[in-house]
Amino acid sequence: MADRHAGDAPSNGASTRAFSFGPYRLDPVARILSKDGTPIAISSRALAILEMLIEHRDRVVAKDEIMDRVWPGTFVEDNNLAVQISALRRTLTAEEGAPPWIVTVSGRGYRFAGQIGEAAPAAAVQGEPPPAAKGRPRWLVPAGIAVIAAAVVVAVFFSRPFFLAPKPGPATVGAAPRLSIAVLPFRNLSNDPEEDYLADAVTDDLTTDLSHIPGSIVIARSSADVYKTRNVGAEQIGAELGVRYLLEGSLRHSTDRIYANAQLIDTQTGGHLWAERFDSPRTQLSDTQMAIVRRIAGALNFNLIQIEGSRSVHDRPDNPDALDLFMRARSAMDRADTLKGLIQAQAELEKAIALQPDFVDAIGELAWCLLKKARDFDDPTDAEDVANARKLIARGIELAPQNARMLVAKGFLQRLEGQCREAAATLQTALTFDPNDIDARSGLALCAVNLGHADEAERLILDILKVDPQNPNNRVRYNQLGLV
Predict the structure, then answer these.
(1) Which pTM value belongs to this model?
(2) Is 410 left (phi over 0), alpha (psi -120 to 50) or beta?
(3) In sequence order, what are the beta bridge partners of 253?
(4) For residue 99, what pLDDT is reported?
(5) How far apart are CA 477 and CA 292, in angstroms?
């Protein structure tokens, strides 16, 4: 599904009253959330979700209801809502031992759990004078106004520079969400206008496929398309779209090959974080398009997690949230396929789930981690790991039956238990939801080996190596290819 537009969230149905809870105050009119009187930086999406949960605090608000109001008229990946809820939970810290302000009701939605006080918003015009003013002599008010007016005139005359509105400075991204990315229209560098089709198709498919990265927020194609004819810098685009990263690229062709370039850019610095150049045989355009998209999406899935994992350790070394812990675990597992790395990832994923019990991607990754420990290493906890993985898979699929990572973990468990035909069917289903899941393809190759289909296994492994050539764990795949 395509992501919704990342502009300001709608305010239809918004309250005209201000809400206070604990040290926080939400002013729907001014669209400001403050803590102890100090405004808090928060995205318009998160603010709209918080307002909706508070308005309907007497009941559970279904996920579909939130999506219909906050992202009206378009479709959005469930991950985007989960990311906004996580951001709210990080912002609204509860006292130690107190329940969280926002509660997840498994399989149903979310509910605001705090006590609310209501008052007129700060932006409202007050028509009644304050109580202390009542009973004063009538002449006192106009006299006071006259004195104040005279003081203002004097101040303006002698201190005009202080009252002049400052010129607006350059736009900045501010606190753009983690793993937020916009795919800019790929450029066609060939002379043939018909090649515009391929560039547009690659842009469109990448926009969709990158949304499968857990926790990612990918700007809708319609929003990024406006930069096809606008020559502006990465910092300005990041500020206007509210994203941390930009993916830009180009395509050109020779007689028999298509050449692709892609770069990942940090919108806060304008620096290039990753770049890749590769070529593909120019056969049917649909095959070439698929090869380019899978290669870029696979590389970005790996590199973005590495970048955000390192950034998380630097920015929040002592107070990571669930998404931080998830990315650190993924980063550790991707870098090195060792028992030490898996044990480290297991600990971080368990903490992430403790912080956010409905974090389905973390549940699936933990199940995968436990099964890898049991299969690849001689560890005293093997039987316990498999039993725990089975429970995690059942719970995760109940929460999100169409989550690709949960289905991959289920297929892994089925293959580990000798059910290769069932595992192959499960992994094929996972690929319908995320065509770029390398682990699903790897599992299918191993199932083909076990079922005696050596030619199919060889084709699948070669395909993985072509799509994901830089993966540090490819030594395992070359070993599998040798065995085939």
Answers:
(1) 0.56
(2) alpha
(3) 258
(4) 64
(5) 21
